Amino acid sequence: MELKIPDHIKNLIPYEPGKPIEELERELGIKNSIKLASNENPVGPSSKALKAIEDSLPNIHRYPDGSGFHLKDAIAEYFNIKPSNIILGNGSNEIIELSVRTFLNPGDEIVFADQSFIFYKLVTQAANCRGVVVPLKDFTHDLERMTEAISEKTKMIFISNPNNPTGTAVGRGDIERFMDRLRDDIIVVFDEAYYEYVEREDFPDTVKYVRDGKNVIVLRTFSKIYGLAGLRVGYGFARAELVNFMNRVRQPFNVNSLAQTGAVAALKDKGHLERSREVNRKGKEYLYGEFRILGLDYIPTEANFILVRVENGRETYNKLLKKGVIVRAVDGYKLQNYIRVTIGLPDENERFIEALTEIYR
Q: Is the pTM of this model over 0.90?
């Protein structure tokens, strides 16, 4: 008997993550490739986090702390917020999904930008909700048009800030004007996965909306600057009532014990955080200069990746791949003439530029 699969699930196009280096090397018959595709921290994890994880290994036969007490306590102290305002996730992706599953009904509308994190579209469709997609303006969220897109059915808005894959950020004034115009019954999700990399001085303090009791969820992660992508641990800030409802939906052991232990240690290692920022800052300036020499336009970034314009994104991606340099093709974001490259270590950045120069000289 053939199963009756709901249409909104049957028509869902799954997210395709970047392939591991080992898999690509096997497929292409190459060695010593470098991966600049997934916006990982090239510095790697904190040595203190690794030590804490190693010390915790003898206890992995025990279930993790389902409440994440110590991690929430560390995050609360770091950001001067109450533990009751914190929710933990198996990566911030899980909290995105939890927010939709918890607060929306089928047919409700979610507003998000067109060329933004593709997971918003996937989770919207999986919940049988309607996505209202608003084009970017100058590669940045067009908050004016997003406001105009709101209807009676709008229940949630996603804002990726800094935005993936463009690296642009919306400033404090624009966010404040946007928030002032919203209905109180709309939940705004600020996805700030790249928050720690931001350099612009007018980046908004969205956590203040949580402290003020607004219907806002602010997402952060340990997958980017903290270098713990393989452990899958993210967190969110929201008023206590919202956190309480999401915890009713959340699986009880969603963040494993090694992830919790490593994240606590990583949060306390300020030296690793500053080194990672410095590597990113210097790498960004180096790549900007090389792109200018090559005559390639790029989008100035507030994250750890750069969107650069090339003649043909997919073709350039494949040519770089054959040279052992893995970047991200972004034609799935309707950016056919661009590639996205993660800012790497100095030798990785140089190798990427050498390969790109061979293609475009």
A: yes
